[in-house]
Design a protein that fits this description.
Elements lengths: L10 E5 L2 H5 L7 E6 L9 E10 L5 E2 L5 E12 L3 H18 E12 L3 H12 L4 E8 L14 E8 L25 H6 L6 E3 L19 H11 L5 E4 L6 H8 L3 E6 L2 H10 L6 E4 L20 H5 L2
Parallel strand pairs: 1-11, 1-12, 2-6, 2-10, 7-9, 10-11
Antiparallel strand pairs: 3-5, 4-5, 6-8, 7-8
Bound molecules: S-adenosylmethionine (SAM).
S-adenosylmethionine binds next to strand 11.
Length: 311
């Protein structure tokens, strides 16, 4: 990684496995790290279910030294990679902690099925005191379930490296309308209120102009709010599961630098196209021949185009 000159936001894209890319970097480089890792890698796993019964000659010791015997209930195969997933995530979360500056913040974007397990892992890595918020991104799109409440939210965990000293730009929080503006008077109603830890925002519209075509693209408004409030202008942000580069666009629009990593060729192509106006530096540890990729210049305007074009 090249160190960005102070005050000149720039963008780097790295193609390769994030663990391999990050291992060469010395610590404490980033002010803000946001990641949105994939969950299901599609491999079939098998898990053996065990049950324990009290037995003085048993193979396990439990509460107050009581002995238990393990009984095997059977083995199930399933198409998720839950055990593997945490093993996959852990070294990357350790790197996130290592690479954060002392006043930096880390955001982990997951869905409701795995967030609890990841939180336990992060509490161990950052310390429980460093956990500041669980943000619920609530959306309301698509079909409704008929046998349970429709799950329509993602979870975003926020950890500060130092819970006593972190960036939180309260004045830069965007305002949202009051639910009952008639109850608060015209002045407050016109100013709006700050959001709570539940953020209502629609998904990236399948036919809207924000859409890049990358399947798991997250809304710019969500990531921009994180960038604006949790980093300062000129800071350096990292997304090491970058996908379509939403964090990169959010950073550049707000005068921050961004470093993006992805191991999928398609993601790198989409990012190059999306962020072409700021001429990202692209480095590659994989086989993608990025220079020969016919990148069309983005037609959508990225704020600060002229300021950053020569960075
Ligand atoms: C859920 S998507 C991220 C979407 C992104 N937040 C956006 O708004 O477009 C996860 C990304 O992680 C990438 N990825 C998965 N494993 C990776 C690894 N080991 N190293 C780098 N990238 C990886 C995938 O290629 C995918 O693009």
């Amino acid at each position: 990684m090249t160190t960005p000159p102070a005050g000149v936001p720039r963008l780097e894209i790295h193609f390769g496995d994030n663990l391999a890319v990050m291992q060469d970097w010395p610590g404490a480089l980033f002010d803000l790290i946001y990641i949105d890792p994939p969950f299901n890698t599609g491999r079939v796993q098998s898990r053996t279910q065990m049950h324990t019964v009290r037995d003085d000659a048993g193979d396990r010791t439990g509460f107050k030294g009581r002995r238990y015997r393990s009984v095997r209930l059977g083995t199930k195969s399933y198409a998720d990679v839950f055990d593997d997933y945490l093993a996959f995530l852990e070294p990357r979360l350790l790197d996130a902690h290592r690479l954060l500056k002392p006043t930096g913040s880390f955001f982990l974007h997951l869905d409701y099925r795995e967030v609890h397990y990841a939180k336990v892992l992060l509490d161990a890595i950052f310390g429980r005191a460093s956990f500041i918020n669980e943000i619920i991104w609530a959306y309301d799109y698509g079909a409704r379930a008929t046998r349970r409440w429709s799950p329509k939210h993602d979870n975003i965990l926020w950890y500060a490296k130092d819970p006593m000293n972190y960036t939180y730009r309260y004045d830069d929080i965007d305002r949202i309308p009051y639910m009952a503006p008639g109850l608060v008077g015209p002045e407050k109603a016109a100013r709006g209120k700050t959001p709570t830890d539940t953020w209502w925002n629609t998904i990236v519209s399948p036919n809207g102009k924000e859409k890049t075509g990358y399947p798991t693209q997250k809304p710019l408004a969500i990531i921009e709010r994180i960038v604006r409030v949790h980093s300062n202008p000129g800071d350096v942000c990292l997304d090491f599961f970058a996908g379509s580069g939403t964090l990169g666009e959010a950073a550049i629009r707000n005068g921050r630098s961004a470093v993006l990593i992805d191991n999928n060729e398609e993601a790198v192509r989409v990012m190059k196209r999306r962020l072409a106006l700021v001429r990202p530096e692209v480095s590659q540890s994989g086989s993608l021949d990025i220079d020969q990729d016919q990148t069309e210049v983005a037609t959508r305007e990225v704020a600060g185009e002229t300021t950053y074009a020569d960075a």
